[in-house]
Each structure stands twice: as C-alpha cells, then as structure tokens.
C-alpha cells in the first residue's frame, strides 16, 4: 500500500543501476574486500528488524509521512493511531535514569521507542531545534530520518560514505564533540532545515 518499490530486506534483488557507490576517506569509490556488490559491510549486518535494509530517500520519506499521518498514507490506514503512539513512547526507563543522564559524555541513545529514537531533555542527536515530540532513526553510511509532528515535518539526510571516511584527522574537533562527523553533518543539515521553516 505504501508503494515503497525501492526498499529491500537484504540485498540480492536490488537493481545495481540504482545503487550509489560508497566512498572512502580519500573520496574514492571504496573497493573493500569485505564487500561484494551491494552487500552491507560486515559491521553493519545485524540479526534484528532494523538491520540489513536498503532503501532510497523517497521510500523513507513515504514511511515517515505515514508515521506523521498517524499511520495513514494515501487514504489507506497502514497502522492504527494507537500503534503509532505506542511506537514513539519511551520503552526503556533505564535510559532516563539519573545516573545515565548525569554522565559527562552524551549517551548515544538515551531514549528509545519501538523502532525509533525519541527526543527528550538531554538528547539532541538529530537536531538541536527538534520539538519534544520529534522522533528519528539513522542508518548505515550516513542516513538520518526525522519526523516532527509539531512542525508537520519530515527530513531525510543521506550520504554514501563509510563512517571512518568522514572522521578526518581529528574527530573530536567539533561543536558536538560526542558525535562522529557523520552525525555532525546530519545535525547541521537538520538545523538548517528547521531554521528555514521556523518563525
């Protein structure tokens, strides 16, 4: 019903002519011996629902819009509003414990729903300007999708580089020292998007 025709679980059926190559730190097409065609790099292969997926920005935007519409897309109810609400509620209370929030370094994920990371008072990964209602998800090689019901907004950011390729010589030289350079780029892009629409 979502017509996400460019989304795949695992990679055997992905059309090669639609794939963008991955780049290394020298901005050359990566020829890693750990990869074969469109296979995900071994350190991104997880036995979980959120792993081994390939998609494109349009399909990801459709899924995000469905979430923004309380589970509906093109007048078809895919998920019930109750299911959508449950997916974006905090599911792991330990993430919000005083011990976890008092750490000097920013925790990677301090609040998670079902399949989504959730914005809360101590977690700004995604955008500094996200509303408290925002939720988001990342992906291998630099993807970040944000859904923000308060602004009726979805943003999709995608790069095509290994995480190591974006570190540069000093990965800690940043306004966001707890983030990798991939995450910094995602953060800056999202901040620019929010700044363009906020009054």
TrEMBL record:
Question: InterPro entries given for it?
Answer: Beta-lactam-related, Beta-lactam/transpept-like, Diverse_Enzym_Activities
* Pfam families assigned to the protein according to its UniProt record, in alphabetical order: Beta-lactamase
Specify the Beta-lactamase-related domain's residue ranges.
Answer: 1-165
Q: By what name is this protein known?
A: Beta-lactamase-related domain-containing protein
Q: Which source organism? A: marine metagenome
